[in-house]
Amino acid sequence: MARRLLVIWFPRLASDTSLRSRPLGGPVALTRRQGNTDVLHCLNLDAETAGLSRGMGLADARAILPDLATRPADPVQEARAQEALRRWAGRYAPQVAADGPDGLVADITGVAHLFGGEDALRDDLHDRMARAGIAVQTAIAPTRSGGHALTRHGGGIVLDGQVSEQLGTLPVTALNIPPDVAGGLNRLGLTRIADLLRVPRAPLVRRFGPDVMKALDKMLGSLPEPVAAPPDPPHFGVRISLPEPIGLTADVMAGLDLLLTRLCHKLAATHMGARRIRLELGRVDGSTARLEIGLARAMRDPARIAPLFHKGIDDTHAGFGIDMLRLVATVTEPLLPAQIVPGQNRGGDEMSDLLSRLGNRLGFDHVLRCLPADSLVPERSFRVVPAAYHDAQPFPYRPRPARPALIFPPEPVRQTRGHPPTRFHWRNMRFSTLRAQGPERITPEWWQDDPAWRSGIRDYWRIETSEGPRLWLFHTPNAPGWYAQGRFP
């Protein structure tokens, strides 16, 4: 079967995409910064009709068209639009690849008859793009370079075996060669592709290099030019349609167990683990209930994931019954296989299950843990982070006195006697010192401007009181006074 390729060109992809999200009437241009000058990146039809062109300086464009509306170009949005169109074009061919920054190429070999022929296929594509407000030009040819050239020069269909005849009338610039090479060919009187077919190849190669002949051979089909469509990313989703509606929590959980097993097999095949999973429950009346859970770390264990859905399913109203279940892993992470040793402590799994349960009820940003920080100042010796997004880290051992289990902002200690104080009042309670250990002198970090430490160095004492509490007190020599900042267990 002869090879047939569909080449799609979007001449105003950037401007059409921008105007779809934010419509604006009149001539519009997207601009980008080139050196110290703003130049036109993409124009809408009104701006092109007024005589503006891509690459023109913005100052020159405003001199020609003072009422020109401009917006900054967004290359990221343009790339996303092209990728969305590439996925959409999969309705016409099993393989679709990008053809430059504003085009697509699709292998439609053996597909056109499903749409009623190649003319009907092109008409269907043009109609859909017109309704979407995106300008498009298409061509169908046996070669990729031939289709690329024809889309930039009016579009159409090149019959098999007639490439040289139908494309010979195109200018040599259609070969996608450098402008200086095309200018040199034009000065020799070789203005059309057909002219290159009638002259010896060796003199052209010696004068202009082999790229001209390579481009010509690609257009004629002498050199292969694959579509090279990128592989579709794996989709981690499964669904089940039920012959009879269900409504009991136990029945929905049974269906969920089946879906989780299939989903985890998909994840394991690509060494991935789920971090967020969405469950969709389709009711008989056409409405859909959605439940989404998060996981403290990537996993693919159905027995540990299923209980997290139980409360949400129990609170969901089934209506007249549920006849469809769909499960999708919306966020995934790499999860390589790990060796399981019999009798090994699974405290990490139990902790991640606890964090998952708490995170789904309270919010993962509200479940925190402390991690060590490189500072000797008590308030800055740790940092509080969301536990689900940071692994636990042991605090480094330093040869220093023990720190209290609870640290709070300094609170004044009054009616002190002695140094360290033998009697004092704190939080409206009277204490007497039984034992005292210290002092431990801590100097503020000069590169940190902390108002609480502007008074200078501190001498910390471990105070064991007769009343029971073991406190962490400090004294500031530069500003006499005692303060409590921690409590030992």
If you had to describe this structure to a student in words, what would you say it looks like?
With 489 residues, the protein is an alpha+beta fold. The chain has three domains: 1-232, 2-Layer Sandwich (Alpha-Beta Plaits), CATH 3.30.70; 237-334, Dna Ligase, domain 1 (2-Layer Sandwich); 369-489, no CATH class. It is built from 15 helices and 20 strands. The chain has helices at residues 13-21, 45-49, 58-64, 75-88, 118-132, 144-151, 163-167, 179-187, 193-197, 201-208, 211-220, 249-269, 302-305, 307-315, 347-362; strands at 5-9, 28-34, 37-43, 69-72, 96-98, 103-107, 137-141, 156-157, 237-246, 272-283, 288-299, 322-334, 368-372, 382-386, 406-417, 423-426, 429-442, 458-465, 470-475, 482-488. The chain has a six-stranded antiparallel beta barrel with strand order 15-16-17-18-19-20. The protein has a five-stranded mixed sheet with strand order 5-6-1-7-8, sandwiched between helices. Strands 9-12-10-11 form a four-stranded antiparallel sheet. Strand 7 (137-141), helix 6 and strand 8 (156-157) form a beta-alpha-beta unit. The longest helix is centred in the middle third of the chain and has 21 residues, at 249-269. It is elongated and about 110 Å long.
